[in-house]
Specification:
Double Stranded RNA Binding Domain, Arc Repressor Mutant, subunit A, 2 domains, 3-stranded antiparallel sheet, two-stranded parallel sheet, about 15% strand, DNA repair, cytoplasm, EC 2.1.1.63
Amino acid sequence: MQPHTVHTVRPSPLGDLLLTGSVSPAGDLTLTALFLPGQRGTPAVRAEDRDDRLFAAAHRQLDAYFAGRLTRFELPLSPAGSPFQRAVWQALDDIPYGTTSTYGELAARLGLPRSELRAVGRALGANPLLLLRPCHRVIGADGSLRGYAGGVEHKRWLLTHEGALQPTLL
């Protein structure tokens, strides 16, 4: 029997988050993606494949994160990607809550030369587990908030929520 894909929708301060996961024949869930509202490439899902119960741990952790009580997610993740992409995504877990890192620092942590910065950026742009694998914590060397698959406005909100950016006055 093959694993099957399920999804859930979770309200958040950013809007409704779409989470997808793969369920093993034994009934174990691993998260495969988290999409922010308005994110390009968000898949169409079938109502009959929704199973909120299987995502209970993810719901609890997301609620705690948005309430400011959780700084690190502890969920089973199974993103689809190349070995290089998965290595970059896993390195994101080492960027502490409330801090940022640059593309260059991330590349150096992975033992990559500066000539690989674009490859690191492409891998970050392909991160299917936004928020859970915190690519929002990676910024430009000049402090700029470079692209984010979930939108730069969401990146700014997340970094402000985590205390890595000061709130801006309009």
